[in-house]
Design goal:
This protein is mainly beta. It has four helices and 29 strands. The strands form five sheets. Strands 1, 3, 5, 7, 8, 10, 11, 13, 14, 16, 17, 18 and 19 form a 13-stranded parallel sheet that branches. The longest helix is centred in the middle third of the chain and has 5 residues, at 230-234.
Length: 364
C-alpha cells in the first residue's frame, strides 16, 4: 500500500451539493466493468484529507461492477470514502485499510471485508451507511480491526440509509470501543439487518453486547436482533455470500523458494499457478520473466524473486541469493571472465565463448 498513491483533488469550483458522487471519485468502476483486481495501492480523495473535517462527499472509490477484489489496498477519505453503488455489485477486501469519519463504507451492494483495518479518523461519526436491497447480504466484516483513537465511545458501527440495510460485524477487534448502543438512526421505516458477533477489545476481552440496540432507529417490527447467536454467525461465509465466485483463492499470494546463482545464471524452482516472476535486485523489481532463470551481472547485489498470481498480484519476495563470491565463476569455483559489450545497439553479456542477452537467453 505504501509504494503507489493515486490521488484526486477536485477543484472546489466544480462541486455542487448534487454532483459530488459523480465528480469526486478518485477511481470509478462502472457497471459491466467486472472482475477487476487491485493490489498494493493507496487510493485517496484529498478533499478534507489534511483538515480531517468533512465538508461533504469525497469518494476515493465508487464501484458499480461485480467481482472486484481489493488486496492490500488503502482507501483514504473523510466522508463516503467507499461507495458500492449497485444492488448486485460485489466486492472482496482482504488485508486492506479503509479510512474515514462519516458513512465511509456505504451503498447497496454486497462486500466482504476479511482481516481489514477500519480507521475511524473523527471524534464521532459512522462507519457504514448501507441501503441494501432485500435478499442481498450487504456489508460483512470478518476478523477486522477498528481503530478510533479520537472517538472512544462516540462513534457508531453504522446507520440505515434506506431499503433493507444490512451490515454484519464478526469477530471484530475494537481497539477503541464504539457507543454502547452500536447503531445510530438516520432513515426510518426500514427493515434493519444490523448484526454483531464475537467482538473483542484491544486486550482480547470479549465485549458485552447486551447494550447493543436498534430501538432508537425506528425500524420495522420484523427487523433483526442486532446480536447474533453462534449458529447464526456461522451461516456467514465467503462461499455463501458469493455463490460461484472464489475471491480468496483468486487473491492468494504465491512465494518462490530462494533462488540460486551459478556463474551468471540466477535460477529458481517453478511455482504452480504462477503467471510470471519478478526479478528483484537489492529489493527492487528490475524485470519480469516467465522463465525460471535469469542472467545477472552485478556481483555486489542480492537477488530475490516475487511470484505473480494469475491476476498479476505479486507475493512477498523470496529469500535472497548473492553473487558476491560466484557471479563471475561457475559452481565448482573455476573463474571465468564476464564481459559486457554493446553489439548492434544491444547489451550482450559474454562469458567465455558464450553470449547472453539481458533476459538470460543464450545468443551464441
Amino acid at each position: 500500500m505504501d509504494g503507489t498513491l493515486i490521488v484526486n483533488t477536485p477543484a472546489a469550483s466544480t462541486l455542487t451539493s448534487t454532483n459530488r458522487a459523480d465528480v469526486t471519485p478518485t477511481l470509478f468502476i462502472d457497471q459491466n466493468q467486472n472482475e477487476v483486481y487491485i493490489q498494493d495501492v493507496t487510493i485517496r480523495n484529498a478533499i478534507d484529507w489534511e483538515s480531517k473535517t468533512s465538508t461533504g462527499q469525497a469518494l476515493a472509490m465508487r464501484q458499480r461492477g461485480k467481482h472486484t477484489i481489493y488486496k492490500n489496498v488503502a482507501l483514504q477519505g473523510i466522508q463516503d470514502t467507499y461507495y458500492l453503488n449497485k444492488g448486485d455489485a460485489t466486492a472482496y477486501f482482504e488485508t486492506s485499510s479503509i479510512y474515514g469519519t462519516t458513512d465511509y463504507i456505504y451503498g447497496d451492494g454486497t462486500a466482504w471485508f476479511e482481516g481489514c483495518n477500519i480507521n475511524h479518523i473523527g471524534n464521532t461519526g459512522y462507519i457504514t451507511a448501507p441501503n441494501t436491497q432485500d435478499n442481498y447480504v450487504g456489508m460483512v466484516f470478518n476478523n477486522c480491526t477498528v481503530d478510533a483513537p479520537n472517538a472512544e465511545g462516540d462513534f457508531y458501527l453504522g446507520r440505515p440509509w434506506g431499503d433493507s440495510p444490512a451490515a454484519t460485524y464478526l469477530n471484530t477487534t475494537f481497539n477503541n470501543l464504539p457507543n454502547s448502543a452500536g447503531w445510530h438512526a438516520m432513515t426510518t421505516g426500514c427493515k434493519l439487518r444490523f448484526h454483531e458477533y464475537g467482538s473483542k477489545d484491544a486486550e482480547n476481552n470479549v465485549i458485552n453486547l447486551n447494550p447493543r440496540s436498534i430501538s432508537a432507529l425506528s425500524g420495522t417490527i420484523d427487523s433483526d436482533n442486532p446480536v447474533l447467536t453462534e449458529a447464526e454467525a456461522a451461516t456467514y461465509t465467503i462461499a455463501s455470500t458469493f455463490e460461484g465466485w472464489t475471491p480468496q483463492a483468486i487473491a492468494a499470494q504465491l512465494t518462490a523458494s530462494a533462488p540460486a546463482i551459478s556463474g551468471t545464471t540466477l535460477s529458481w524452482t517453478a511455482v504452480d499457478g504462477a503467471y510470471c516472476y519478478a526479478v528483484c535486485k537489492d529489493g527492487a523489481v528490475i524485470d519480469f520473466t516467465t522463465a525460471t532463470s535469469y542472467v545477472v551481472t552485478d556481483e555486489t547485489a542480492s537477488y530475490s524473486i516475487r511470484v505473480a498470481n494469475q491476476m498479476g498480484g505479486l507475493g512477498e519476495a523470496s529469500d535472497t541469493a548473492t553473487g558476491v563470491n560466484n557471479v563471475n565463476g561457475n559452481s565448482n569455483g573455476n573463474i571465468q571472465s564476464v564481459e559486457k559489450v554493446i553489439e548492434a545497439g544491444r547489451l550482450v553479456i559474454k562469458k567465455g565463448d558464450r553470449a547472453y542477452n539481458v533476459a538470460g537467453q543464450m545468443t551464441k
